[in-house]
Amino acid sequence: MKPPTAAAGGGGKGGAVDPSLPRFRCQECRRALVVVGVDSYADRLPAHAASGNHASSVQGSVMGASRLDNSYVVLSRQNRSQGPGIPPRPPSAAAPHTEPQQPTRAIEGSYIVLPPPAASIYKTPASEGGSAQLAPPGVNSSSPSPGNNSGFHSSVTVLKRAFEIASSQTQVEQPLCLECMRVLSDKMDKEIEDVNADIKAYETSLQRLEQEPYNILSETDFQKEKQKIEEEEKKLKATIEEAEKLYSEVSSEMKDLEIKSKQFEELEERYWHEFNSFQFQLTSHQEERDAVFAKIEVSQVHLELLKRTNVLNDAFYISHDGVIGTINNFRLGRLSNVENVQVEWDEINAAWGQAALLLHTMAQYFAPKFQYRIKIHPMGSYPRVTDIHNNTYELFGPVNLFWSTRFDKAMTWFLTCLQEFAEFAISMDKENNVPPEKSLKLPYKIDGDKVGSHTIVLSFNKNENWTKALKYMLCNLKWVLYWFIGNTSFAPLSGPGHTQSLKNKS
Question: Is Coiled coil among the key words of this record (predicted)?
Answer without folding.
Answer: yes
